[in-house]
Amino acid sequence: MSIWLIVFLFVVPWVATFAGSMLGLTVKLSTRSRQNMLLGFAAGVMLASSIWSLLLPALEDAGENARGVAVVSCGFLLGIGGMLLLDKLLPHQHMGEPSPEGRPSHLSRPMLLVMAVALHNIPEGFALGIVMNSAMQPDGMPGMMAIVFGIGLALQNFPEGMAVSLPMRQAGISPAKARSFSVLASFAEPAAALAGFAGARLLSMLGGVVMPLMLSVAAGAMIFIVIEELIPESQSGDVGHGPTYGFLVGFWIMVVMAVLGG
Fold this sequence. Notes:
Largest sheet: none
Shape: globular
Number of helices: 9
Distance between the termini: 16 Å
Low-confidence stretches: none
Helix content: over 70%
Structural class: mainly alpha
Number of domains: 1
Strand content: under 5%
Number of strands: 0
Order of helices and strands: HHHHHHHHH
């Protein structure tokens, strides 16, 4: 995989987050149903990406037998456990919730909102770093599949970027502060991608089951976020079927992209 492709995978998802955050400070998207439809779309993209770009390649790499299933299952559970731990330790607050989650802190409400978005972006960035490393291996993930994963992240990062800036603007936070917090939140994913890439690069030297294990860890973390955070947030309030339609559209777009890109 060329260095330019690595740059593409690293930059494009971040640009989408940043662009979504900036657009959320300017466009009029006041109805909750429209915001939730965007979150549903992001959840659909994220779930399909986890299956086609992480879980299935992990099973193929580990071997579609009892041993391979055991390796991928262990990684999947580790990813879920890691996100449960982060959810308990990282101070954060979701829009619409009366009180913060995680360890007690003195962070402001806007900063707690940023931390909630970071909680979404950490597993996504970690997964992106692992995918980038896998695509660099001679017998790893095909480059086109890695590109599809990166584009999928970009597609779901755009509405997620709006989801952090819109509530801040609606809560009466000044545009300058909202812009600063949005920029700060957008850096969570590339930072996690660097960590995931470095860790995967180091561990991949061990060979064996390490790569499928790490792919399945990333899948478990991402699917946990979809089920625990994105879907409940998208369905909060009386919003009708919009979030469901958004989820289905996002999911199917990624299925088509994975099939055509594979």
